[in-house]
Write a structure and sequence with these properties.
alpha+beta; endopeptidase fold (from Nostoc punctiforme); eight-stranded antiparallel β-sheet; about 30% strand
């Protein structure tokens, strides 16, 4: 009787885990292993996207002229390097995980002083623009969040370029209703832009 009960509980647990796993949105941050860490795999406006070998891979810190750009080949390092190389912009707070780029205490269109960028909530009255830095909150399997650069904006979608993901480019649906723009993803907190 105990063996049957134990077997039943094990099967029940496995079924519950399977159902939970199917319903949980997990976006693995892995790129096929046919690259070496640091290898260029894409670019945006001449700023190179480099291969990282997985979300938790660390290859030292990128420091430029005393400015902390971030951990090499992580998503944060790419967006900060993009803003540094393309706009000559240095963020006052040069540390933090991707999720920390979005200050939840700020109103839509307020200045995010840590980043010296205007911050827009998702949804916002301001339509996303090319060059905006987009922030994704944490999700199951990723407690750091994610950041990317908006590379294209159409009437109904945005494209982003990103580092340390399965694909260097992704698109999200964009909706406009009641005077607000919404990038369709529960994880997208909002976007930031140069003043």
């Amino acid at each position: 009787m105990r063996a049957r009960t134990l077997l039943f509980l094990l099967l029940l647990g496995a079924a519950a885990y399977s159902i939970w796993r199917e319903r949980t949105v997990v976006e693995p941050l892995l790129v096929p292993v046919d690259h070496t860490p640091g290898e260029p795999i894409d670019s945006l406006n001449g700023v190179i996207v480099r291969y990282n070998d997985g979300m938790n891979a660390i290859h030292g810190r990128n420091v430029f002229d005393g400015y902390n750009v971030g951990l090499n080949y992580q998503c944060v390092e790419f967006v900060k390097r993009y803003y540094l190389e393309h706009y000559d912009h240095r963020m006052p707070n040069s540390y933090g995980n991707a999720k920390d780029f979005f200050d939840t205490t700020l109103a839509d269109s307020a200045l995010n002083k840590d980043r010296a960028l205007i911050q827009f909530s998702n949804p916002s009255r301001s339509k996303p623009r090319i060059g905006d830095l987009i922030v994704l909150d944490t999700w199951t399997g990723n407690s750091f969040g994610h950041v990317a650069i908006i590379s294209a904006v159409e009437s109904d979608e945005v494209e982003v370029v990103q580092q340390n993901t399965r694909s260097t480019r992704a698109t999200y649906d964009l909706d406009h209703a009641d005077g607000r723009w919404y990038i369709e993803s529960e994880r997208i907190s909002g976007w930031l832009r140069l003043p």
